[in-house]
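Materials and Methods. Structural model of Unplaced genomic scaffold SPHSTscaffold_69, whole genome shotgun sequence. The 411-residue sequence of Unplaced genomic scaffold SPHSTscaffold_69, whole genome shotgun sequence from Sphaerobolus stellatus was retrieved and submitted for structure prediction as follows.
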Amino acid sequence: MQALIKSFSSANYYDPQNPEAHIPTERDELGLIRAVAVKARSSSQCKELFLRIKSEGSSSQPQTPVVAQRPQPRMLPVDMVVRWSSTFMLAHTGVSLKDSIQYFVFQMSTAEKDETKRKKLRELLLTDREWANLKEFHDILMISDNAQQAFSSETYPTLSMGIPALEAMHAGYTRKCRKVSARLHEAVDAALSKIEDYYDKTSCSDAYLVSMAVNLDSKFKHLWKHWTKTMYNETIALLEKIFARRHKELEGQEHPSTAVNKRSSKLSLLMQELDSSDEESEKDEEMVDPLAEPWKKDFVHWMAHEEIIPEKMDMVTWWGLNSQRYPIWAALALDHLPIMVSSVSSERVFSAAGITISKCRNRLKGDIVEALQVLKCAIRKDLIICLPMPSSLLEDILEDGENTEMEMNKV
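The predicted structure was written out as tokens:
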């Protein structure tokens, strides 16, 4: 998205080492909003003035409705060159607080006694046309922001959203290209070119397709709906090869003497019940050629049937619990679902480590920092004590405890 931003704005980003370099020499909507954001944070008086205007509202004009009903930050953010999403938030906040920003600049310029400085402050006021341009740029960049939100997470797998998100972005930018002003055509074309580059790179790895296949919520529904029949069949054929290869690898790891593991009687009975009463398995046997490869039945069964994941259960846990039913698919799922599709979790780790390693704790060694981070995560995520899942075994234990308590009360 940096290509889109650079095509729209040539203004410099804020540099604390050179505080005046970010002020645009030409009329640049994004540069003007950035300059106002820096000005609003330049002193405690400016910050207090901006927050007061924001809370009270401009006395001259009614407030502009909040764009897309997103929560407004307390202050105007200052964006960074390394994070395009920060530039989107700057544009979003600027459009949302249009009237407050205009009134803030007006108040600052009115209070300034120096004529030269007052003139420079007045130049930060955006015209109606410039506000319209900023709003148009914001709406375009929101397509990328929505896509980023779809596959950015630190708590659940999102790789399966990679291809759908890129295709949705490309479709959104293509539609925008027909509607935007001529000035933004170059910026949208640059964004489309960058999206196509990233999309082409997805063909270099099978992980995107496998992660879609093992996603319980979607599987290949997106490909079936949006891809041609020929492309879909080619993808299924590729997935069959991957599945057959993994089946062969797992079969080679099994030994006759250890193929049958010791299981509890309850688990053995459950497996027998599934094998004997599952009508869907009988349907699969009818659908699959008896002379087909041994892995074909499992492949067709998974692709043709829908599984419902229980509420509040994550996908990785579901695959762990169902690895006996779908051993090959579970092996593929546990290999591909942990693949990171965004840097959110890594950034969160660096940020959390920065809080742990303070000026008073700057001599901690790596193993100590690692242990502290793990402990902090375990405490905040309630991972130290995990309550058991509901089961008949748990019911028996609770019932025994109640009986023991009743016996003690009788005595």
